[in-house]
Design goal:
The structure holds four protein chains of four kinds. Chain B is of the alpha+beta class. Chain B is built from 17 helices and 21 strands. Chain B has helices spanning 2-22, 51-57, 108-121, 154-157, 166-169, 228-237, 255-261, 289-298, 301-308, 338-347, 378-390, 402-410, 423-427, 434-437, 453-464, 468-485, 518-523; strands at residues 33-38, 65-67, 73-75, 78-83, 89-94, 132-137, 143-147, 190-196, 201-206, 219-224, 242-243, 264-270, 274-279, 313-314, 368-374, 394-400, 416-421, 442-443, 488-501, 504-505, 525-526. Chain D has an eight-stranded mixed beta sheet with strand order 6-7-8-3-9-10-12-11, sandwiched between helices. A four-stranded antiparallel beta sheet of chain D has the order 2-1-4-5, covered by helices on one side. The longest helix of chain D is centred in the middle third of the chain and has 18 residues, at 206-223. Classes of the chains: A mainly alpha, B alpha+beta, C mainly alpha, D alpha/beta. The C-D interface holds C 3-13, 15, 17-18, 20 and D 35, 37-39, 42, 44, 64-65, 67, 69-70, 73, 80-82, 291-292.
C-alpha cells in the first residue's frame, strides 16, 4: 500500500478501536445511569426500577447495546441523556461552545506567543530578561493547573474584586461574558504558553548552533532575521507534533479550570457524566474528543509534511 | 517585531481593566429583589426530573400539606385534612383563594389530576398505584382518597409532591423528561419566570393573582454555586443575601468568618437527618450484636463532634432518632469506653492469639474490615479507622465515588460505611429512619440491611396505625429496638445553621425544607 | 539551561569534556536530592507522627511550625510524609512508562515494517484514551492506592517515550557499527541490547525525568478530584482537604501554600535536572 | 644559512613585481583568539599577521586543529560566544574586529563572503536551494523576491547547474558537489571583494573537488575578488593560490609564494608537511600536535622538530624573520631560529 494508504488504514483502525473503547470504558465502571438518577431520598419498588431500565435500554444484552451504539453513531444520533433531560447533541453543542470560547483563544494565543517568546528566549539565552522569563514560565509549567487557578481566583476575584466569582456569565451580555471568561482564559493561555515556551526554547537552543545558522549569518543576516527566517521553521517541527499530542491535556486542563471557576463547559459535563455514569453523554463527549484529537494529529501530520519536505520525500 | 509584541500585550491589559470596571455596576433588577445562594446545582430545568429543581419549584407549585416547625403535618394548599377511623379514607378540603399565575383558578380538579397523573407517570409516586384505589371530589369540593389498606402517613407523603396545573400538564406525557427554561405556571406567591442554566440562576416573579398575605419582594433569585467557598465569598461580599441548602447545613468551618463580619444572623435548628456508621448486618462479624456493641463503645463521640461538626451538635443516643423528630424517646446515651469495648470483644470470643495487636475472628482468621467511603466522608472515616485500631480491629479504607458506593453497598461488598440520613429519608417508609434499614425497600441512599421479622412487623404496624397514640407507642418501640440491636451507630446529632444577611428578617424554618417554604417567603422582609 | 558550553568548533581535543553542570543544574540537583532525602528519612525528620491529632486549625507557632489541619494533625509532618507519595507516584509511573516506551520504541524503530506499523497504531490509540475516566474506573475496581495510580499513569504515558526512542532507533539502525554487527550475524536482540540501547539512554534519561514531573502533577490533580489514596499522606490530598475543609476561606494560606509550593519545587528540580541532561546530551552529540 | 642564499637567487623577478604595486585589501595584524572553557583558556590563535592583496589568493594551510578556521572566522566575527579576540583586521581602512554586529552584518555576504566546508549541513534542509541563494540579494539590495530568484537562477547557470528543476529542489535532494555549488552561488551572488573558503573541497570526491575549485577560481577572476583559502590539501593550494601561509598550533610559522615554498621550504615543519604528500613518500610527522591550553614555550614545533636546537625552546625572542626582496617587498617570512 502507498504511504498515505497505510497511514489512512492506521487512522481508520485506530478510530474504530477508540470508538469501541468509548463504548467499553463507561460500562466497565460499577453502576449504570440509573444508579445515581433519582436522588438519595427516593425509595423505588422493583417494578418501577425495571420499567426505567428498559426505557433506558439497559436491560438488553451488552452486544445488542453495542450494535445499537454503532447504528446510532452511523446515523449521527448521539442519543438522549436521562440525567440532563436533553438530547446529547444539543448538550454537547452549547457546552462545547463555552469550552472552545475558553480553550480556543488560549490555544491559539498560547502557542503563538509561546513559540515566539520561546524562540526569542532560546535565541538570546543568557540575557537577564530571558532568564526572568524562563524562570517565571518554568514555575508555571511546574505548578498543577488547578492550584494556580485557585490562587488566582482567590487573589483577583475575592481580594481585589477585579473579576466575578463564578459562572460563565451573569447578565449574558458580551461584555459580561468576556468579563467572566477573561481570568480563566488568561490562566489557560498561561499554561499553554508555558508548555510551548519550554519546548520551543529547547528546540531553538539546539538548532541555533547548527551550521546553517552560521552560514545564514555569514550571508549577512542580522540577529533576529537569522532566527525568524531560518531557525524558527526548523525549531517549529517538534512543537507541531507535541501540540497534537497535547490536545488531550488541553481538554483535561480545561476540566480543572471549569471546576475551579464553576463554569459548565465540556470539562464539567464530562466530570459530572462520569460520576453519574451517564452513558450517552460520556459516549458523545468521548467521540467529540476522539474526533478532535484525530483531526489534531492529522493536521499535525499535514502541517509537518508541508513544513518539512524530507518527510514527504521518504 | 518586538514593538508589535509590546503593543499587543498593552492592548490586552487595557481591555482587561476596561472590562472589569465596565460591568462593575451590573444593573439592578426592577423592584425589591431577594437573592439566595445555594450549593444545590440544578442540572436541568425539569421540576420532576431534577431533584434540586423540584425543591426550588415548591415555591411556585406548593405541596398539598406542609410540616410545621414542631414536626406536625398541617395543610398548605389543603385547608384541612381528616382520616377515617379505619385509616382507609382521607378527606382534604382545598383553599379557594388560590389562582394560577396565568389567571386560572386552582380547583380540586387540579389536585385530583395531579395525584392521578403522578401515580401514573412519576416513578417516585409509583407506590400510590397499589395503595390508593380512587380519588373522588365531593360536591362541596373536598377531595376523598379511598385506600385499599390503612396508611397512616398519607398526609406526610403529600407534603412533598408539587400540585400541577391540569390545563398545562395534561398534554405532557413524560413529566420526568419535560424541561422548561422559560415561564412555569405556578399558584404559589411566586412563579418561575425563567431558569438560566449557564449562569446557574432561577428567577422567580411575584404571582399577580396571589390573594394571600402579600410578599414583600417583587422577585426572588436563586443563585446556585458549584464551589462552596465561592458561595461563602459571595455571601460575604453581599452578592447573595441568604443561604439555603436542602437537608444540609452551612459549612461549620466557615461560620466564624461570617460572624466576624457582624452583618449576619443564623437560623439554628436541630437536624432531623444525621451522620451515622452503617454496618453490613448480612455479613460476619457485623451480624454479631456484641461486636457492634463493642464498636459503639470504641467511638470517641465528643472528638468526632469536635472535629467533624466543630461542636455544632451533641453526642447521640443509641436510639438513633434525633430529639427533633416527633415522638422522640430518650434512650441510653452512647458512651466512649475503651476498656468496656475490649471487654465485650474478649467476652464474645474475638481473641488476639498471635499478639500482633489485631483480633482474630471466631473462625480464627484475622479480622480485616472493608470500610467503603465516599469523598465527602473521608475525614470521619479516617477517625473511625483510628478508633477501631485502638481496640484491635483492623480495617482498610476503600475510597470510591457515589455511583460506585451505591452499587457496592447494594451488593453488600463492605463491612462498614459512614453515610448520612436526610430529614425526608428519616420520614420515609415507616418514619423514624426505618426506611434506611428495612431490607424490603431499596433506594440509592438506603442500606436495607435489617431482615429481622420483628422489625418488618413493626414497620407494617406503623404504616397501618390509625391513631396518634398508636403511632407514639410504635415510635417508642422502634427507638428501643435501635437501642438494643444497634443496626447503625449515630456519630453525632448536628445543628442546621442557615446564615442570612441582617438586612433581612422574618425567616421561618420547617424541619423538611428549612427556610425554603411558602410561609418563610411571605414573612421575610428588609429590616427598616 | 544556560548555554555557556557552546560547541568549540576548532577544539578537537580527545579528552572527554568533564561533567559540566550549569548553575541551575546544581539548583535542580540540590532540591531533588533534598526531597529524596525528605522522603527517605520522613520518620526521622518529621517533628510529630503525621496521624497524631492535636488541636484542629491551630495557626503556625513554635510548637507546630506550619500549624495543624482540620483533624489537628501537624501540617509540617504531613508535608514531610507527603513527599513519599510524590516519590512513589513519580518514580513508579516514570519507570513504568519509560520501560514500556523504550521497549516499544526499540522494537518498532529497529524492526520497522509490520511491527512498526502495529506499535505506532497502538500509540495512536493510547494517545486518544481519556485518562481521568480510566482512573475512576480503576479506583472503583481495585483499592485505590498510589501504586495503582503510578501503574496506570505508566501504562498511559509510554507513548511519547516510544516515539522519541523510535526516531532515535531509526537513526542508529543506519549507523556503521550496527550494520557491521548485523553482517557479523549477531541476533537482532543482541544488537538492540548491546548497541542500540546504550546510545538511546541519553535520549531516554531526560524523558524519564520529565515523566516523573508530569506524574507528580497528575497525582496532585487526581487527589484534588478526591480520588487519591486516603491511607497515604500526599501533597495533593493535603491541598484537597485544605480547600474542602475551609482552609481557603478562613485564610489558612499556609495549609495549602506549603504543599503547593513543595509540588512545584520538586517538579521544578526534576525538570531542571532533565533539561540539564538534555543540554549535555545535545552538546556531546555535536562534539562527536 | 645556505637555504637562504639559494632562495634569494631562486625568486623570479616578475613574481615580485605583481605583488608590489597592488594594495593590501585585508591586513590581519597581531590577531590572538582564546576561548574560555571549563578546562581552561584555549589559545586557538596567537599573534597572527597576514596580508591579503587585491586579486590575490592566499592559502592558509596546516594540520586540522591548528586554528586556521578560528583565524578566518574571527575576521567576520563568526566565532562562538565564549571567544575572546585581540588584534586588528584592517579592511578598507576599518578594523573589522571592532565593528558592531549591525555594520558587520552589512559587510558579510556583500563585501566579504564565506564558503563553509560541509555543504549539506550548511544549507537549511527545509528551504529551497534558489531561495537560499537569493537571500543575500533580498537582505542587502532589498530587491523583491522574484528579481532575487532570477539572479539566483542566473548564478546557478553560471555554475553549471542550469537545468530547470534545481532551483525548486531542496538541499537534501542534491548531491554534495551540487550543494557546494549552491553555497558558492550564495556567496558570490553579490560579487564580494573577498571570498573566504573554509576547506571547500573537504568531503567531496577527487574530481568534483577539482571541479568546485575550478568554479571558485573562475568566479574569483571574473569578479576580480581576492580569495583566502583554508585547506589541508597542499596540492590544491599549489594549483590555485599565489601565496601560502603555513600555520602550526595557532601561529603562522611561514608565508611566501607558493612556488618558492614548494621548491625551498625553510621552516622544518613546512618541510615535514611537504614530505607528507603522496608524491614525496607519505612520511608522517612524529609526535602529535601540542595542547593549546599549555602550549610549549618558545618554538611550538620544538618537541617534534628534527632540526631543533637548545635555544629553540627558550621563552624569549622567537620573532618572525622577514626576507625582503630587491624593492623591499617581503618575499618570505619564517618563524625559526635557524634563520
Amino acid at each position: 500500500m502507498s504511504l498515505t494508504g497505510r497511514k489512512a488504514a492506521r487512522y481508520f483502525i485506530a478510530i474504530f478501536l477508540i470508538i469501541t473503547f468509548n463504548f467499553a470504558i463507561p460500562r466497565s465502571m460499577p453502576g449504570d445511569p440509573l444508579t445515581n438518577l433519582l436522588g438519595e431520598d427516593v425509595i423505588l419498588s422493583d417494578s418501577s426500577v425495571q420499567e426505567l431500565r428498559s426505557k433506558m435500554g439497559l436491560d438488553k444484552p451488552l452486544w445488542q447495546q453495542y450494535i445499537e451504539y454503532w447504528q446510532s453513531i452511523l446515523r449521527l444520533d448521539l442519543g438522549y441523556s436521562f440525567h440532563l433531560h436533553k438530547p446529547v447533541s444539543i448538550l454537547l453543542q452549547d457546552r462545547m461552545k463555552w469550552t472552545l470560547l475558553l480553550a480556543g483563544p488560549a490555544l491559539i494565543l498560547g502557542s503563538a506567543l509561546g513559540a515566539i517568546l520561546g524562540a526569542r528566549a532560546g535565541w538570546r539565552s543568557g540575557s537577564r530578561r530571558e532568564k526572568v522569563h524562563t524562570g517565571i514560565l518554568l514555575a508555571v509549567y511546574c505548578t498543577p493547573p488547578y492550584f494556580l487557578s485557585l490562587i488566582s481566583l482567590y487573589l483577583f476575584s475575592f481580594q481585589l474584586g477585579l473579576f466575578p466569582l463564578k459562572g460563565l456569565y451573569s447578565t449574558g451580555s458580551a461584555a459580561d461574558i468576556a468579563h467572566h471568561l477573561l481570568l480563566p482564559a488568561v490562566m489557560m493561555t498561561l499554561f499553554t504558553l508555558s508548555r510551548n515556551y519550554m519546548i520551543m526554547r529547547g528546540s531553538v537552543l539546539q538548532e541555533k548552533s547548527s551550521l546553517y545558522a552560521a552560514f545564514a549569518r555569514a550571508k549577512g543576516l542580522y540577529d533576529e532575521q537569522i532566527l525568524f527566517r531560518h531557525i524558527f521553521r526548523n525549531a517549529l517541527l517538534p512543537i507541531i507534533t507535541l501540540l497534537a499530542l497535547d490536545f488531550g491535556f488541553i481538554l483535561s486542563g480545561a476540566l480543572f479550570i471549569e471546576i475551579v471557576f464553576s463554569m459548565n463547559g465540556m470539562g464539567s459535563l464530562i466530570y459530572d457524566a462520569l460520576l453519574s455514569r451517564d452513558y450517552p453523554v460520556l459516549q458523545g463527549s468521548f467521540l467529540i474528543i476522539t474526533i478532535m484529537v484525530v483531526s489534531a494529529n492529522l493536521l499535525a501530520d499535514l502541517l509537518y509534511s508541508r513544513l518539512d519536505p524530507r518527510v514527504k520525500w521518504e | 517585531m518586538r514593538r508589535s509584541l509590546y503593543l499587543l500585550a498593552s492592548l490586552l491589559l487595557l481591555c482587561m481593566l476596561m472590562l472589569s470596571t465596565a460591568s462593575m455596576g451590573a444593573e439592578e433588577a426592577t423592584g425589591e429583589v431577594l437573592k439566595i445562594g445555594s450549593p444545590n446545582v440544578i442540572k436541568s430545568a425539569s421540576i420532576l426530573g431534577d431533584s434540586n429543581m423540584g425543591v426550588f419549584a415548591h415555591l411556585s407549585n406548593p405541596t398539598l400539606m406542609k410540616m410545621a416547625a414542631d414536626g406536625t403535618i398541617k395543610g398548605l394548599t389543603a385547608g384541612s385534612s381528616e382520616v377515617s377511623d379505619d385509616g382507609k379514607t382521607w378527606k382534604f378540603s382545598i383553599k379557594d383563594n388560590l389562582y394560577w399565575s396565568d389567571g386560572e383558578k386552582l380547583t380540586p380538579v387540579d389536585v385530583q389530576f395531579t395525584f392521578n397523573y403522578l401515580a401514573e407517570n412519576y416513578p417516585a409516586a409509583g407506590w400510590m398505584k397499589n395503595t390508593v384505589d380512587n380519588i373522588s371530589i365531593q360536591e362541596d369540593g373536598t377531595l376523598v382518597f379511598s385506600l385499599n389498606k390503612p396508611y397512616s402517613r398519607l398526609n406526610l407523603e403529600f407534603a412533598t409532591y408539587p400540585i400541577l396545573a391540569k390545563h398545562i400538564w395534561e398534554s405532557i406525557d413524560d413529566p420526568m423528561e419535560y424541561t422548561n427554561e422559560g415561564e412555569n405556571v405556578g399558584f404559589g406567591p411566586f412563579y418561575i419566570a425563567s431558569t438560566d442554566l449557564g449562569a446557574g440562576v432561577i428567577y422567580f416573579k411575584k404571582n399577580p393573582y396571589w390573594k394571600g398575605t402579600a410578599p414583600k419582594f417583587d422577585s426572588i433569585e436563586i443563585h446556585t454555586f458549584a464551589n462552596m467557598d465561592v458561595l461563602s465569598l459571595a455571601l460575604e461580599k453581599g452578592d447573595v443575601d441568604a443561604y439555603y441548602k436542602y437537608a444540609g447545613t452551612y459549612p461549620y468551618s466557615s461560620i466564624d468568618k461570617l460572624k466576624e463580619t457582624g452583618n449576619f444572623e443564623f437560623v439554628e435548628k436541630d437536624n432531623i437527618g444525621l451522620i451515622f456508621l452503617g454496618m453490613n448486618l448480612m455479613k460476619e462479624p457485623m451480624s454479631d450484636l456484641s461486636f457492634r456493641k463493642a464498636i459503639s463503645y470504641a467511638i470517641n463521640y465528643s472528638e468526632i463532634l469536635k472535629l467533624d461538626a466543630l461542636g455544632y451538635g451533641k453526642v447521640p443516643n443509641s436510639g438513633f432518632v434525633p430529639p427533633s423528630m416527633m415522638n422522640f424517646k430518650e434512650t441510653a446515651k452512647l458512651e466512649y469506653n475503651l476498656t468496656q469495648a475490649k471487654g465485650i470483644l474478649d467476652g464474645a470470643g474475638y481473641k488476639d492469639t498471635n499478639g500482633n495487636g489485631i483480633l482474630e475472628g471466631k473462625d480464627g482468621k484475622e479480622i480485616k474490615l472493608t470500610f467503603l467511603t465516599r469523598t465527602d466522608y473521608q475525614r470521619p472515616t479516617e477517625l473511625m479507622v483510628d478508633y477501631l485500631k485502638a481496640v484491635g480491629i483492623d480495617s482498610e479504607i476503600k475510597n470510591v465515588d457515589s455511583s460506585t458506593w451505591i452499587k457496592q453497598k447494594d451488593a453488600g461488598e463492605y463491612d462498614l460505611t459512614i453515610t448520612r440520613s436526610t430529614p425526608w429519608g428519616m420520614l420515609m417508609h415507616a418514619n423514624w429512619g426505618t426506611g434506611y434499614f428495612d431490607s424490603r425497600r431499596t433506594g440509592e441512599g438506603v442500606l436495607h440491611v435489617l431482615d429481622d421479622a420483628k422489625f418488618h412487623q413493626l414497620c407494617d404496624d406503623i404504616l397501618a396505625a390509625t391513631s396518634e397514640d398508636q403511632l407514639k407507642d410504635y415510635a417508642y418501640e422502634v427507638q428501643d429496638y435501635y437501642a438494643e440491636n444497634l443496626p447503625a451507630i449515630p456519630l453525632y446529632w448536628n445543628l442546621v445553621e442557615t446564615p442570612y444577611n441582617k438586612a433581612f428578617q422574618g425567616w421561618y424554618s420547617d424541619p423538611l425544607y428549612g427556610i425554603f417554604n411558602v410561609d418563610s417567603f411571605l414573612s421575610v422582609e428588609k429590616t427598616q | 539551561m544556560t548555554d555557556f558550553c557552546e560547541r568549540l568548533n576548532e577544539w578537537k581535543g580527545n579528552r572527554l569534556m568533564p561533567m559540566i553542570i550549569s548553575k541551575s543544574g546544581w539548583l535542580g540537583l540540590a532540591f531533588f536530592s533534598s526531597f529524596l532525602l525528605m522522603a527517605a528519612l520522613s520518620p526521622v525528620l518529621a517533628p510529630y507522627d503525621p496521624w497524631y491529632r492535636f488541636e484542629p486549625y491551630l495557626p503556625p507557632d513554635e510548637l507546630h511550625l506550619l500549624g495543624t489541619n482540620d483533624l489537628g494533625q501537624d501540617i509540617l509532618s504531613e508535608l514531610i510524609f507527603g513527599s513519599r507519595a510524590s516519590v512513589i507516584v513519580g518514580f513508579g509511573a516514570a519507570l513504568m512508562s519509560t520501560a514500556i516506551g523504550t521497549a516499544a520504541g526499540l522494537v518498532s524503530g529497529y524492526f520497522r515494517g509490520m511491527a512498526d506499523e502495529i506499535i505506532m497504531g497502538i500509540t495512536d490509540i493510547f494517545l486518544m484514551i481519556p485518562q481521568i475516566p480510566l482512573i475512576i474506573v480503576l479506583a472503583a475496581f481495585l483499592r485505590p492506592s498510589l501504586w495503582l495510580v503510578a501503574l496506570l499513569m505508566g501504562c498511559l504515558w509510554w507513548t511519547s517515550t516510544a516515539r522519541v526512542v523510535r526516531s532515535k532507533a531509526l537513526q542508529i539502525r543506519e549507523t556503521g557499527y550496527v550494520q557491521a554487527n548485523r553482517s557479523l550475524g549477531f541476533s537482532s536482540l543482541h544488537i538492540m541490547l548491546s548497541d542500540v540501547l546504550p546510545n538511546i539512554t541519553h535520549v531516554v534519561m531526560p524523558k524519564f525525568l520529565l515523566s516523573i514531573a508530569s506524574a507528580m502533577i497528575a497525582e496532585a490533580s487526581i487527589s484534588f478530584l478526591g480520588l487519591g489514596d486516603p491511607t497515604m499522606k500526599s501533597w495533593g490530598m493535603m491541598i484537597n482537604f485544605a480547600f474542602s475543609r475551609g482552609g481557603f476561606l478562613n485564610g489558612l494560606w499556609w495549609w495549602y501554600m506549603a504543599p503547593g509550593l513543595c509540588i512545584t519545587l520538586f517538579v521544578l528540580s526534576v525538570v531542571l535536572l532533565g533539561s540539564m541532561l538534555e543540554e549535555r546530551e545535545s552538546v556531546s552529540l555535536r562534539l562527536q | 644559512m645556505t637555504d637562504l642564499q639559494d632562495f634569494m637567487q631562486g625568486c623570479s623577478r616578475a613574481a615580485s613585481e605583481s605583488m608590489a604595486n597592488n594594495q593590501a585589501i585585508l591586513s590581519i595584524e597581531d590577531l590572538s583568539v582564546s576561548f574560555e572553557t571549563a578546562m581552561g583558556r584555549v589559545m586557538a590563535a596567537d599573534g597572527v599577521c597576514l596580508k591579503l592583496h587585491e586579486r590575490e589568493t592566499v592559502a592558509l594551510v596546516g594540520e586540522t586543529g591548528c586554528g586556521k578556521s578560528v583565524v578566518v572566522s574571527s575576521i567576520v566575527q563568526l566565532l562562538p560566544g565564549n571567544a575572546y579576540v585581540r588584534g586588528r583586521a584592517i579592511y578598507e581602512g576599518r578594523d573589522l574586529l571592532s565593528l558592531g554586529e549591525k555594520e558587520m552584518a552589512g559587510i558579510r555576504g556583500s563585501e566579504i563572503a564565506m564558503i563553509f566546508q560541509n555543504p549539506s549541513l550548511a544549507l537549511n534542509p527545509i528551504i529551497k536551494a534558489a531561495e537560499q541563494i537569493a537571500e543575500p540579494v533580498i537582505i542587502h539590495w532589498r530587491l523583491p523576491k522574484s528579481q532575487a530568484l532570477d539572479k539566483a537562477g542566473e548564478m546557478l547557470r553560471r555554475l553549471g547547474l542550469g537545468n530547470r528543476a534545481i532551483p525548486g529542489m531542496f538541499p537534501f535532494q542534491l548531491s554534495g558537489g551540487m550543494n557546494q555549488r549552491v553555497m558558492i552561488a550564495a556567496a558570490m551572488i553579490l560579487s564580494p571583494k573577498i571570498i573566504i573558503a573554509d576547506e571547500p573541497s573537504k568531503g567531496l570526491d577527487a574530481n568534483s573537488a577539482d571541479e568546485v575549485m575550478g568554479e571558485i577560481a573562475r568566479l574569483r577572476d571574473s569578479a576580480g575578488a581576492s580569495l583566502l583559502l583554508i585547506t589541508h590539501d597542499l596540492g590544491l593550494a599549489r594549483k590555485i593560490s599565489d601565496r601560502m601561509a603555513v600555520m602550526y598550533c595557532g601561529q603562522i610559522i611561514e608565508t611566501g609564494r607558493c612556488e618558492d615554498i614548494f621548491n625551498q621550504p625553510l621552516h622544518p615543519y613546512t618541510k615535514a608537511l611537504l614530505n607528507c604528500l603522496p608524491q614525496r613518500g607519505f612520511q608522517p610527522i612524529p609526535g602529535s600536535s601540542p595542547s593549546m591550553i599549555e602550549p610549549p614555550e618558545g618554538c611550538r614545533f620544538y618537541p617534534r622538530c628534527p632540526e631543533r636546537q637548545d635555544e629553540c625552546c627558550m621563552k624569549a625572542g622567537l620573532q618572525m624573520v622577514r626576507i625582503l626582496g630587491p624593492e623591499g617587498e617581503v618575499l618570505r617570512e619564517v618563524r625559526c631560529r635557524l634563520y
